[in-house]
Specification:
This protein has six helices and 23 strands. By secondary structure, the protein is an alpha+beta fold. The chain is elongated, with a radius of gyration of 29 Å. The N and C termini lie far apart (about 105 Å).
Length: about 350
C-alpha cells in the first residue's frame, strides 16, 4: 500500500498556496489606510493654504468641496470657485484639480465657465468649451503653468474705448519664471490663438478673415497680483520699472501679416512707450485707416512696399513676403515710423 504523505508537508504546501493572496490583501489594506491618511492631510493642507491666503488678503471660496480619487489619485472638486482681493473679484464654474499620489507637485486642472473678473470698473467675461491647465511646482515655487482652451470667448467692458470682444478656435498659454533674470522678477509668457475673431481688429486692418496670433514675451517686475484695481496694478508695475520684452509677436490675417520685436513700457502719463522693429506685408489698409486715407499715408505705404501695386503683383495663393519697415517708435503719445510721425494717431493713457 502507498504511504500517506506526512501531515507537516501538506500544511506547508497550503501555506505557500495562500500566502500571495494574504500578502495582496495586506498591501491593499495598507494602501487604503495610506490613501485616507493622505486625503486627510490634503484637506488639512488645503485649509491651511486658504487660511494663509486669507491673511495675505486673498479670499478663496471653494463651493461644495469634495476630495475623491481613490486609489491612486487625489481629486479636489469645487462646484464653484471664487477669489476676492481688495476691489478685485473673480469667479469660475466647476473646478477639478487632480494630482497623482506619487507626484503631488504636478497638478492637472479642468475649469468650467463662465469666468467673471471685475474691479468695479472694468469687467472681463469669458466662456469656453473646454479649459485644462497643468501646474508644475517644486520646493522653491512655481516652475511652469500651461493652459489650453477650446473655443474661448472673451468680452471686456468698462474701458474708455468701449466694449472689446474676441473669440478663437484654440488658445494656448505657457508661463514660467525666467531662470536667468530672477533679479528682475521676470516671467516668460508664450501664447497663441488660432482663428481669432476680433471685431476691433477687423475695423482697423480691414478684411473679415480670422487671425492667427503668436506671442513670445518676457515681463519684468512680475511679482504677483497685489489685489488692487487694474489701474493700481499697472501703476505699481510701471513705478517698479516693469517692461515688456517682445521676443516675437506675429499676426497673420488673410494676405496681411506682421512680425514685431522690441520693448514696451508705460511712460509717466501712463501711455505706451518704447521701440519696435517690424516686418510686414499687405498693411496698406492699416496705413490708410491710421492716416484717414490721406495722400501722405498712401505715399508712406508705397514707400514701404505695402501699397496696392505690391498687393496686385503677388499671386493670389502666394505666401506674403515680409518687408522690413523702419523702426516704430512710441514716444510722448505719438507714433513714428522712421522719420515720419504718423498723422491722426495719438496714444492715449491706459488708465
Amino acid at each position: 500500500m502507498d504511504q500517506a504523505a506526512p501531515t507537516g508537508n501538506v500544511r506547508r504546501s497550503r501555506f505557500w498556496l495562500y500566502t500571495p493572496f494574504v500578502l495582496l490583501l495586506l498591501v491593499a489594506i495598507a494602501w487604503s489606510v495610506a490613501w485616507f491618511v493622505i486625503r486627510g492631510r490634503t484637506a488639512d493642507a488645503l485649509d491651511g493654504w486658504i487660511a494663509a491666503e486669507a491673511r495675505s488678503g486673498r479670499q478663496w471660496t471653494c463651493g461644495d468641496r469634495t476630495i475623491v480619487g481613490y486609489p491612486f489619485r487625489i481629486e479636489i472638486i469645487c462646484d464653484t470657485l471664487d477669489l476676492k482681493r481688495g476691489a478685485v473679484s473673480a469667479s469660475f464654474g466647476r473646478t477639478e484639480a487632480v494630482a497623482q499620489v506619487y507626484q503631488p507637485r504636478r497638478v492637472i486642472l479642468e475649469v468650467a465657465g463662465p469666468l467673471r473678473v471685475t474691479d468695479g470698473t472694468v469687467t472681463v467675461n469669458g466662456r469656453w468649451d473646454l479649459l485644462q491647465a497643468s501646474i508644475n511646482a517644486s520646493q522653491t515655487g512655481l516652475q511652469r503653468l500651461s493652459l489650453a482652451a477650446n473655443a474661448p470667448q472673451v468680452t471686456v467692458t468698462g474701458l474708455g474705448a468701449g466694449e472689446i470682444a474676441g473669440s478663437g478656435r484654440h488658445l494656448e498659454l505657457h508661463v514660467r519664471p525666467n531662470p536667468s533674470r530672477r533679479a528682475e522678477l521676470a516671467g516668460d509668457v508664450a501664447a497663441s490663438v488660432t482663428e481669432a475673431r476680433i471685431p476691433i481688429l477687423d475695423a482697423l486692418v480691414g478684411g473679415p478673415e480670422a487671425t492667427n496670433l503668436n506671442a513670445d514675451v518676457t515681463v519684468t517686475q512680475a511679482d504677483g497680483f497685489k489685489g488692487g484695481t487694474i489701474a493700481e496694478e499697472l501703476e505699481l508695475w510701471r513705478s517698479a520699472g516693469g517692461k515688456l520684452d517682445i521676443l516675437m509677436l506675429s499676426a497673420a490675417k488673410g494676405p496681411r501679416q506682421i512680425e514685431t520685436k522690441g520693448e514696451l513700457r508705460l511712460d509717466e502719463q501712463h501711455r505706451p512707450a518704447g521701440q519696435l522693429t517690424v516686418a510686414a506685408a499687405g498693411l496698406d489698409g492699416l496705413l490708410g485707416n491710421l492716416t484717414g486715407g490721406r495722400v501722405g499715408g498712401n505715399l508712406l505705404g508705397m514707400l514701404l512696399g505695402q501699397g496696392p501695386r505690391a498687393n496686385n503683383a503677388a499671386q493670389p495663393n502666394a505666401k506674403p513676403q515680409l518687408a522690413s519697415l523702419p523702426p516704430l517708435r512710441l514716444e510722448n503719445g505719438f507714433l513714428a515710423m522712421g522719420p515720419f510721425v504718423i498723422p491722426n494717431v495719438r496714444l492715449q493713457p491706459l488708465y
